[in-house]
């Protein structure tokens, strides 16, 4: 197995460059979902600058997972929210891919992911999930309660 790409910080985000000179940005943007409950939350996203190569690069997966682990080392009492982008009608594929990534990367159970899917106002499926560091004490019921509120928000 190859090593992850080297992460560097730029403007509070993680950035890395692949062997094919494609640059990716990993963003952890403050999200206020759990503030009332006394927990920090962030929305997680990543994207390439430029058109990604169609060749699968295992090091990208490893780098994304490494960034999550680094994030949780720096923010152990936080919740990450991720919504699978559906702009190109590939949200389901992203969901399947990310589920595989997490399953492969979290065999030690250091990161927990709670999956959800709902229909938006256009009746399209929206896949999203919350990710928490296993050693932080955010009760699962709190996270599930928040996610139910999200479902109500989308279904209006």
Q: Low-confidence stretches at least 5 residues in length (pLDDT < 50)?
A: none
Strand content: 25-35%
CATH class: Alpha Beta
How many domains make up the coordinates?
A: 1
- CATH fold call: Aminopeptidase
* Mean pLDDT over all positions: 77
Helix content: 25-40%
Which geometry do the CA atoms define?
Answer: globular
- Strand runs, count: 7
Strand order of the largest sheet: 1-2-3-4-5-7-6
Q: What structural category arises from helix and sheet content?
A: alpha+beta
The main pleated sheet reads as: 7 strands, mixed
Measured on Cα atoms, how large is the radius of gyration?
16 Å
Order of helices and strands: EEEEHEHEEH
Sequence-ordered SSE layout with sheet pairings:
Blueprint: E1 8-10, E2 13-17, E3 23-31, E4 40-49, H1 58-74, E5 78-83, H2 91-105, E6 111-119, E7 125-133, H3 140-154
Précis, in short:
The protein contains 3 helices and 7 strands; from the N terminus they run ββββαβαββα.
């Amino acid at each position: 197995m190859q090593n992850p790409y080297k992460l560097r910080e730029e403007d509070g985000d993680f950035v890395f460059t692949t062997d094919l000179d494609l640059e990716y940005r990993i963003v952890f943007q403050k999200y206020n979902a759990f503030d009332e409950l006394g927990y920090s939350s962030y929305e997680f996203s990543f994207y390439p600058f430029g058109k990604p190569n169609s060749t699968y690069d295992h090091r990208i997966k490893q780098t994304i997972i490494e960034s999550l682990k680094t994030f949780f080392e720096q923010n152990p009492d936080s919740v990450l929210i991720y919504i699978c982008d559906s702009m190109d009608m590939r949200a389901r594929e992203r969901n399947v891919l990310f589920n595989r990534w997490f399953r492969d990367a979290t065999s030690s159970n250091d990161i927990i992911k709670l999956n959800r899917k709902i229909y938006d106002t256009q009746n399209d499926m929206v896949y999203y999930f919350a990710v928490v560091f296993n050693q932080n004490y955010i009760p699962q019921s709190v996270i599930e309660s928040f996610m139910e509120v999200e479902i109500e928000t989308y279904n209006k």
